Amino acid sequence: MKLSLLVLTALASTAAAGPIARGYGAGHESTAPAHAGKNATTPAHGSKNSAHKLPANEITQYSHIAALSAGVASNGTRIARVLAHGDLGLGTWPHIAGEMVVLDGVAYRATADGKVSTPPGNTQTPFAAVTRFVPERNATGTIANFSDFTTHLEGWYGGNLTHHFASYRLDGVWDLRIRAPGGQNHTLEPIAAVVARQTEFNHTRIAGTMVGFRTPKYAAEINAAGDHLHFISDDRSVAGHVLEFASVGAVKIQVAKVLRYSVEVPTFDEYEEATFA
Length: 277
Description:
Layout: H1 2-13, H2 48-53, E1 59-62, H3 65-69, E2 77-78, H4 79-83, E3 88-92, E4 99-103, E5 106-110, E6 116-117, E7 124-125, E8 128-131, E9 137-141, H5 146-157, E10 165-180, H6 191-195, E11 199-215, E12 226-233, E13 239-247, E14 251-258, E15 261-264, H7 269-273
Parallel strand pairs: 1-15
Antiparallel strand pairs: 1-8, 2-7, 3-4, 3-8, 4-5, 5-6, 9-14, 10-11, 10-13, 10-14, 11-12, 12-13
Organism: Vanrija albida
InterPro entries: Acetolactate_a_deCO2ase (IPR005128)
Signal peptide: 1-17
């Protein structure tokens, strides 16, 4: 119950910016107009004009990691409505079939067959988090591995992030291992079972961008605690959830602290029937 109250308060405080979606029922999407993507053949792109009106460095999220972990993934909200709230982020797609990367206001889908696409704006997402990213700190550095990144992020930011959310963008050349899940075998299949069948890809000396969020431990039921990164290559042919990585030489590191985090809780039947750990 505390989570619901926290979420509703946060959404009320950002109502002027337009909450993602309200009034879901029995798995049906709200009929409120989309802010991007005029038809089913148009890839999902955020509106540049509306994006600049949004407060910088506030995260808006649809659903939460506890629900996704429980397999609540059949329905959601349209990606066009998510993109109305930010230009950088991550998430997944219906039935956890693929990984989402949001970069420069475009949502990309990485699937288990190694392909990358830009779904139309009316495609649903069961879980996504975005922000209008305006870096507060810019740094250049080398990264030995994922653990090294986690250790040194505060140094690149130049301040304490222990109890704070943060967003970041990393640009450079990488050696990395990424994944893309193939999707659920049945409704409410837990994410642990889905990722146990995931496809992993190894790439060396690949140019691209990582986007992600740091979530403090106390919010582990909202998003994945710690650092959560997704990658997309410069040529947009490779993307996925980052499992391990190292920079090839120096890379550009941009970081911002996040002080406001709004979450929309689903209300369709699958969510109501789920059991959260």
